[in-house]
Predict the structure of Cytochrome P450.
Amino acid sequence: MTAPRPRQDPLRDPRFFTDPYPTYDQLRARCPVQRIPTGSGGHHAYLITGHPEAREAFTDPRLSKDTARFFAERPSNRDLHPAISRTMLASDPPAHTRHRRVATPLFTTGRVRALRPYIARVVDNLTTAWQPGKEVDLVAELALPLPITMICELLGVPEPDRAELAAWSHALFDATDTNIVDAASHRIGDYLTDLVDTARATPGEGPLHSLVRDCEEGDLDRDETVSLAALLIVAGHETTTHFIGNAVLALLRHPEAFDRLRRDPDLIPGALDELLRYDSPVSVATFRHSTEDLSIGGTGIPAGFPVLIAPGAANRDPAQFPHPDRLDLDRDATGHLSFGHGIHRCPGAPLARAEAETALRTLVTRFPKTRLAIPAESLTWRRTRLTRGLATLPLILS
């Protein structure tokens, strides 16, 4: 099956960053798997926008996550730090299996349950100065510091360093300048290398010492330990920040849904899947490439091409979710792909859900008549195709 091909990269249009869903709808209507231009260098990739096709692609072993293998055969002027370019997200089994064996126990249901009182204390500390009538930026004052505090606490990152580490992580998702991305990767990689080396050289019982021991027992070497720490920092807060911000905005734009959660906050855990589906914090999943010729959704994909799976598009596939542009808290949205699917499904999902639940519960119970401080159309969105999130979310507390 041959699909019509866009003439320009549809994922770099300024309108895409503000609202990707019309673009996704148009692409999916043409063909749920199609070849698109990427960047301005004459390169192409295959973009997957349909839900069944995305689920299939997530589990197809012929789509490799080993980016080092892909770029080893292609000239590139990129200069990513190895801690960023060779994480668990950029590997296949058996290397991926070793990394995941260490990462998964950090986020078990029991571990997250034990963390819930601490999550609540962090949220209380962040919102203690909030008062009715005050304007706050939900992103800067809650959605960003909550997850970065949690993941840095898990890793034992000193508190004075956390804001700078978050800023470097933020820069990693810049869609406008690869030099900014590469430079940020080295700042993160160098910082975490020093942190891991210090923990390896000095006895201790802190969180990072525990992670180092887990890595050694899991047959991860020093560089792999650094890369796992980097992944936990970057993936552990960036998407959760957007999860919280997108969810609050969706509820404020659907006041009947916000009011329903205000009247019964115990509905919040069940509403999280629909909020994740409605405006996914992961718009396009991280890089894959075809290692041999294959076919997905009836579209042939030759060997050697990048393949981009778009959970943001798949979550709005009307064949899977009727009336997908409607926020429906009664919908069974458990089939959403915002955390991925298969062996690369996000291991930190339980922690992200707990953080979002606590943040939303605080907002709807303490400030049940909160409203946007500016029109929704005036909000600024991050310019990145990988994640979807707000730069700021100014609110009037009430």
Strands lie at 33-38, 43-48, 63-64, 135-137, 288-290, 294-296, 299-301, 306-309, 371-372, 394-396. The two ends are 54 Å apart (CA to CA). The first helix runs from residue 14 to 18. The longest strand covers residues 33-38.
